[in-house]
Design goal:
The protein is of the alpha+beta class. It has helices spanning 31-47, 55-62, 70-73, 116-138, 158-166, 205-215, 227-234, 263-268, 290-305, 322-328; strands at 5-7, 10-12, 22-25, 74-79, 82-93, 99-107, 147-154, 170-181, 196-197, 245-249, 252-257, 260-261, 273-275, 280-281, 309-315, 332-343. The strands form three sheets. It has a ten-stranded mixed β-sheet. Strands 9-10-11-14 form a four-stranded antiparallel β-sheet. A two-stranded antiparallel sheet has the order 1-2.
């Protein structure tokens, strides 16, 4: 028997729990975007995840997917016509030529601990195995590099963590969400000689994005960005060049902090937070204090704007010393996150 059988739009999972009116199906088009958003929102409180998504955010994301076709690579669970969970897979080849099959899933809290998550995880893994085999047959990948299932969760997602561990996943990388109270003084570090901060013009956006991609090439888990990634970033409503701190040497981008404000998120969580993200310095300009100069200027900017704290995410094992830098300017850990991996 195959792991799953598709019939009249339904996907039969022989290993699914025997629950009344439970069915599984594939993606049914744009009408499912609202179901996706509803499930993300329903998961936020029980999983202690602070995020603010709109329907436009979901649409923009799904219009620019890489190596993932919603009509082929998604699974929905329904009870009496109501979506109670969904999952999606995609694949990528990282900087070490490893094949990574990513999967994500969200479920309504009222339907957890009933075996639905375990069944969906098994389906997503089987589907990724099928994709991997097709890529092998087509010569897109070879047997030589290792292949893995990959996913990423916050440590507050205790249900997902238990499910992954039971299925044989192991933690392979850790990261932090960090915050920096702006009630404390900000010591602005000097700019390295020969560099200046200039506003990025619209016709320089591509150059900026490519510089950021280049700067992250030697980071763990780097996957080369595509045109779809660029277009999704270009259409991000949070992009605000007036908040960015971008250092130039002549016509070359040396480094950047692409600051942003998420007004809807601030309103939902009743806070005044500025984000200091996409912090990167290209190799020729590293070890000169540029990241510190750009970051402290960003903190000072948000302080003047009336924000009460700044936030960012960091890979705790980043070889460029990012964690030490952030702690050195006053950032403290707010939440921990873990990348889990399992050999295919």
């Amino acid at each position: 028997m195959t792991a799953q059988t598709v019939s009249q739009g339904r996907i039969e999972l022989p290993y699914a729990p025997d629950l009344r009116d439970l069915i599984f199906r594939g993606f049914q088009g744009v009408s499912d975007y609202q179901n996706i958003l509803d499930l993300i929102n329903a998961s936020k409180r029980p999983d202690q995840i602070d995020r603010t998504d709109t329907l436009d955010d979901v649409v923009r994301y799904y219009e620019h997917l890489n190596n993932s076709d919603p009509y082929q690579d998604m699974l929905f669970a329904e009870v009496e016509g109501q979506s109670i969970a969904y999952g999606r897979v995609e694949w990528a080849i990282d900087e070490e030529s490893k094949w990574l099959g990513f999967h994500i899933a969200f479920s309504h809290p009222d339907w957890r601990r009933k075996g639905i998550g375990a069944a969906m995880l098994r389906y997503l893994e089987d589907h990724l195995r099928q994709i991997s085999q097709e890529l092998l047959d087509e010569g897109v990948i070879t047997e030589a590099p290792p292949r893995y299932f990959d996913t990423f969760i916050s440590d507050t997602e205790v249900g997902k963590e238990a499910l992954l561990k039971k299925a044989g996943y192991k933690p392979v990388r850790f990261s932090y969400s960090m915050v920096r109270p702006l009630s404390e003084p900000v010591d602005v570090a000097p700019m390295p000689e020969g560099l200046e901060i200039r506003t990025v013009q619209l016709d320089q956006f591509r150059q900026l994005w490519e510089a950021d991609q280049e700067a992250f090439k030697d980071h763990w888990g780097y996957v080369e960005g595509t045109e779809k990634d660029y277009q999704r970033w270009l259409k991000d409503p949070l992009n605000d060049p007036d908040l960015w701190k971008v250092a130039w040497e002549g016509d070359q981008v040396a480094g950047m902090v692409l600051n942003f404000l998420n007004e809807k998120e601030n309103e939902e969580y009743h806070r005044l937070r500025g984000w200091t993200e996409n912090i990167s310095v290209r190799k020729p300009w590293r070890r000169r204090g540029l990241a510190s100069a750009l970051l402290t200027r960003s903190l000072q900017m948000f302080k003047v704007m009336g924000m009460d704290h700044a936030a960012l995410g960091v890979d705790t094992q980043n070889l460029t010393g990012a964690l030490d830098l952030y702690e050195g300017v006053g950032f403290i850990v707010e939440k921990r996150h873990t990348a889990y991996r399992k050999k295919l």
